Amino acid sequence: MTIERFKKRKIRSKKIYKAAEKIFALNGYKGATMSMIAEEAKLPKSTVLYYVQTKAELYQIVIETILDDWLQEGKMFNLVGDPYMILKSYIEEKMDFSREYPHASKIWAHFILVSGRVSKKTFIKIPSSFNEWVDLRVGVINKWKQEGIIKDIDANALLYMIWATTQHYADFEYQITVLNKNKRLSKQEYKNKRNEVVKLILGAVFHELRED
Known about the structure:
By secondary structure, this protein is mostly helical. The protein folds into two domains: 1-53, Homeodomain-like (Arc Repressor Mutant, subunit A, Orthogonal Bundle), CATH 1.10.10; 56-205, Orthogonal Bundle (Tetracycline Repressor, domain 2). 73% of the residues lie in helices and 0% in strands. The chain has ten helices and no strands. The protein is globular and about 60 Å long.
């Protein structure tokens, strides 16, 4: 394969993925079709089917990619550093992800709501890497607790709270817009909300809040 063909193939596969993410987010698995995805990607349906043969296969790719992106956000947990800054950075990145990739969050929310049973014939499992990622972070948080760095909290409950709060800004974006006088939060308004979320969560975790 020539370099030029490789580049074109990469561009097309990325276009297909982004189109699939949008169509699945707006229509759900059942409502989405390969024809709709091809139209959104501005590619012939035959080209889309060349890269991925079925809707279920494409949905699986989207789910795994979303999860991979989310797990990358928690890479700071692998570093030896200040627990306060590690957790603060993680919450901020989760909030930023919800702002920049709302379709991804909505797809994941629907996937979890139906327990992976996206249709009568299609069941998608959560990749085992998710369990492994959570177990490692729970271990880190419990270590902080044992050392007295944070309050006596449940590590899993903390992660659930972070996910629920940060992803709310993507999954319930319409509700937030309505409550904001039918205007999408501006960048500054979103930044202010992010700062408040950080303060609320860190205040529940650490013995003292730090001044920014």
